[in-house]
Design a protein that fits this description.
- The structure is a single chain.
- 42% of the residues lie in helices and 0% in strands.
- The longest helix has 14 residues.
Length: 73
């Protein structure tokens, strides 16, 4: 279940849904600078907080910059 988005968050509705959608694999596709890597990173954090081990995830990104950003976060 996707939690209700608080009014004080900066995520768009689409980003919020991508972060919290569960039970499905997702593909995030959008233009440069739109927050794809931030959304993917936040989704991973939420999965870990819910008890899912990182070793049970496959996370793909297609640029070295995005991979570095995810690693740094």
């Amino acid at each position: 279940m996707i939690p209700t988005k608080p009014s004080n968050v900066t995520w768009t509705d689409e980003q919020w849904n991508a972060i919290y959608l569960s039970g499905k694999n997702i593909i995030v596709s959008a233009g440069a600078g739109s927050g794809k890597t931030a959304v993917l990173t936040e989704r991973i954090i939420e999965k870990i907080k819910s008890g899912i081990s990182i070793s049970n995830m496959i996370v793909l990104t297609f640029t070295n910059a995005a991979a570095k950003e995810m690693k740094d976060r």
